[in-house]
Every structure is written in C-alpha cells, then in structure tokens.
Amino acid sequence: MKNNQYVSIGWPEIGDLLESGIQSKKDIIRLFHDEGYYPDKKNVASRKAGEIFSFLKDIKDGDIVLAQNGAKILGIGEIVGDYGYNSSENFPHFRRVVWKIIEPELRNDEGLQTTVYKIQHLDTIQKIDSLIRTYKKESKMANELNQILFGPPGTGKTYNTINKALELCGEDLTGLSRQDVKERFEQKVKEGRIVFTTFHQSMTYEDFVEGIKPVEPEKEGDPIIYRIEEGIFRKLCIEAAFALAKEKESEITENVLDFSLAFDDFVQRIEEKLTSEQQVELATKNGGRVIVDGISQQGSILIKHPGKDNIYPVTKQRLSKLHAAFSDLSEVHNIDQQFRSIIGGSNSTANWAVLNAIRNNISDSVEPNKSIRKYTWEEKKEVVQALSREDYKDKDGESFVLIIDEINRGNVSQIFGELITLIEEDKRLGNAEAIQVRLPYSKDSFGVPPNVYILGTMNTADRSVEALDTALRRRFSFIEMPPCYSLIRTDGKAKDGIINGIDLSLLLEIINKRIEKLLDKDHMIGHSYFLNISTLNDLKSTFQNKIIPLLQEYFYGDYGKIGLVIGAGFFEINENQIEEDFFAPFDDYESSVLLEKIVYRIRNAQDMTDESFTAAVYSLMRKV
Q1: How many other CB atoms are found less than 10 A from the CB of residue 494?
Q2: pLDDT by residue (tens digit) across 167-202?
Q3: Which has more pLDDT, 317 or 550?
Q4: DSSP secondary structure code for residue 543 in this structure
Q5: H-helix or E-strand containing 325?
Q6: 555 contact partners, CB below 8 Å, separation of at least 6
Q7: Is the full-model pTM beyond 0.85?
Q8: Is the C or the N end of the chain the one with fewer CB within 10 Å?
C-alpha cells in the first residue's frame, strides 16, 4: 500500500462491489450469506457489512485516512480516487491515496478491532490535524512559492516547469509517460489551476494586474465603452482566494453568494417591469421615493430622485458590502456617515432604497440548491472582496500555479508594479506581515493568497542572472538547469547516445567546454537539442539549424572563435579570393596585408556527405 499509494481491505470472495450494484449495507450482508461468511454471527456480519459499505460510499476525495497495525499508525494519507477492485490481490477493495506522513509519532487506541471506522476522539483528531499542518508547512518550504529555473537554451526549463507545476498541484507523476503528464497538465489548465504566460517587451501592468480595456458594443452603432478588466495574475489570485473560501464555506461566503443571487433576481424583475413601461419606485429611509431609471450595461441599477435629472448608479459590489455590514437596516440612523464608512462617497439614499427593496424581495426568491450551485466570475470576486484577513489564517488550500516563460524578457518592475512586494511569503495573505494594496484602477484592496505559486524560466543566453532586476532576484529562489549529458544516453532516441560511432553526449560536452572558455557557462548548449537525434541526418540537421546559428549569434560572426569550437572541418575557403588590390585608395593605410587574409565560409552541414560530416565531427572531437 505504501509503495503503490493506496489503502485496501479484504473479503475478496464477495467480488467487485460496483459490479454487484451495492446500494445498502443489506446488499453486502446478502453477499456474506451467499459466500458463507459469519453464518451464526448476525451482529458481526452487520458490523462488518457497515465497515465495507463505509469504505465504498462514505469515504470521499480529500478525506484523511490512517493505516494502522493495532494502535501503531503506519501512515497518514489523503484519499484521491474512487473505489476500485483488483481481483489479483488478497485485499482487493482499494482507494487511491497520497501518503502525507509515514510512521508518525502518534498512537491511536480507538477502534482496534475494527477494519474501517470514523475517528471520533477530538484529541486524536486535533493531533492528526496538527501533524498535517506541519507537513503542509514543511512541504511548502520545500516548494518555495516563487522559483525561477535558469540556464542556457535547450536544458529543459519549460519542460520541467510542467512537472513542477503538477507536483505543486498534488499530482503524483511516478511512472507516467510524457503524454500522460501533458494530458494532466492540460486538464489543470482547463480547471484554471495552472496558467501559462510568456513575458515580452510589450507586456504591461495592465495585462498582468488590471487595466482599462474597451468592450465591443452589443449592437452596431452603440458607443464603445471601457471597463476595468483583471489581468492574468489578478485573475489567478481571485481563483485561489475563492478556493480557500470554498474549502470551508464560512457564513460570510454564503451570505455574499446568496445576496448576489438575490441582486440578480431583483434586476431581472426590474427589467421585466421597465420593458412593459411600468414605473418602478423604491421607498427611502425617510419615507420618500426614488425612481429606477434603468439598468446600465455593467449591470448597475440607475436611480434618480423625482423631478431631478441626476443619475446615481447602485452597484452589486457596493451593496454586497453594505449587506454584510448591516444586518438590520432599521438600526442605521445616519446613513450618510455609516454607509460612507463602508463604501466611500456615494448617494446613500439610493443605496439604502435598493438594498431595502432587495431584502424585502429575498423572501420571495427560490432557495438555491447549494450543492449544485455554479459560481459566476462576478460572484467569485464578491466573495474574495468580502473576505477578511482572518479568513486567510492557517489556510493552505489547493495550489494555483502561474508559469512565466522567459521572465527576464519583460520589464519586471513595470509589469509587477507594487505587487513585487506582495509575492514574498511573509507578505502573503494569512501571515503576520501580510500586506494589501489599493489597486490604481478598480480601487479594490488586493493581496496575494498563500496558495499561489510562481514558476519562471530564464534563458541565460539572452540575459545573465546578474543583470536581472534586483527586486525580482531577492524574491525568487533560483534553480540552475545546466546541460545534463547523461540524459542523451538514457532518454535520447539514439541507442546509448551513439550515432555512427559518434558519442553524442561527449560531443556536446566538448562543444560546451570550449564555449565556456571563450564566453561563459550561460551560453552553453542544452542537451535537449540531442535527445531527438536517431540518424546521422538528424545530427546534420541539428548542426545546420540549431548549433551553428547559435554559435553565430554568440560570437557575432567571428568565424575564428566559431572555428575554435567546431573545428576546421565545418569551414571552407571562399573560392573567389581576389588577388589584385580592389580597395579604394586611402592615405596612410596599407591594404596589401588585407589582401592576404583568407575568407572562410561555414559549410552547409546537411549538404555534406556522410563521410565528410563524420570526419568533421571526429576532427571536432580530436578523434582520429
């Protein structure tokens, strides 16, 4: 069970419980009777049937389970799969599990004669909870929140971020093929748990955090309107914060969501009345009336006072905050002062009138089925905005990962803005030093949840680590990804990494030693260029289309240094050497020396014969 990540129970003779269509404990008792289990022990049969039925139906994904031998706890794990049956095992009924802790220093004397039972002792539950929290904190320390994989091109930086992102999301990748890994990655992307982006020179704060963007008109001729839209990072943070709120739904969370549904229902009723040209009036705090003038494109309720032309928009977000702050509107005596303390400057009379009408309307609304409720993006934002700092304390939740490829290609200071401080671990929401900022466009308070991870990649050939923004360097842990020559032998297409007698890993190692001597290690060539080589033609293509262009870029066309790396075999002398002096006359400069200079050209590796190409490679490797 430990090695293969599952928990299981016996009773193999009763067979696959899903195929048997088990619906109740009585169905299992019937199977016991058919197989001759407990013939004279009805109480025992009933108890054991209850344990098996609990294993089948009661245990859910995310539940914590203990594997015990007597009072000794062998392991603490989390259920990650449905019931399964393996007829070849003595304990055939199983559930997949991720083991969190093996052989913890903890004993449990409860239910020692029972195979499957629910732990009831509060003291034991608290100890287990404490152990799991410690495990999560240690695991988080092992997986730093902000990491950058850096190295020369072709060392598998982007390749490895996929694996790391899945591991941070709790996926066990042991024994999975690359195809399976990619499928799991794509699934996490669809779920919104992983977001992939690439930084570039045009990337801005407005793309990353929030900005004002035009919205396409619904009908031709309508004016273009502009709306504040969340960027990549803020969207991910909202999803992560909402996941924390949903982990243990608080009264605040449900209150916000219920009010959101009530607001939408109220708007729908108003629209129906306005469509039929009915005038909609709402009572105010002082016994007067206000008029609903319409619903804006953003979904706000537009209010005006009788005989006045001024329009006051009443937004769902502001009303949600007021709804959470004041449980009884009759106790609000100074609405200007009390409302402004919650939502700032606005028409308090209009907000009170709409909030009061919605509350009166709630009793007529249909109670939503919370078990199947689907949450809109606006509802998620409302829940997150309603969360307090206390709601983030001691919460980890499921992980959300932002992968930033080529992180050094963007203007990091401009893209992150003030958030560069917020991504630090101790500044994350829920920690003692947590910081929230007021965003410049939406004016919303914003902080980074503790369950958001940032994985970056950096090609050192484009820009060295030392030149990277100092503020970014201090807030990320850097993991070097150097060329791994052994992978060419073990994971490459060429058997043992050898093509036509050419040891590919040794070839790359020799090239990189020369590059490092002439330039630095940041400009070496990665092993991935050699992994897909299975024929000599593949090697020719790699030289022509990848290695030689890289060297030309590294050495700015200095053929002398390129020749020191790959040898004379890949060069040819220009046949059209001009012997006579063809330079223009220029005083005090002797051009005759230049006429003696030999002009070289790099040969097209793909046009070389197998013999000449192999000879050139052997010469490169100083191999006779």
Answers
A1: 22
A2: 888 888 877 888 999 999 999 999 999 999 999 888
A3: 550
A4: I
A5: helix 316-325
A6: 518, 519, 561, 562
A7: no
A8: C
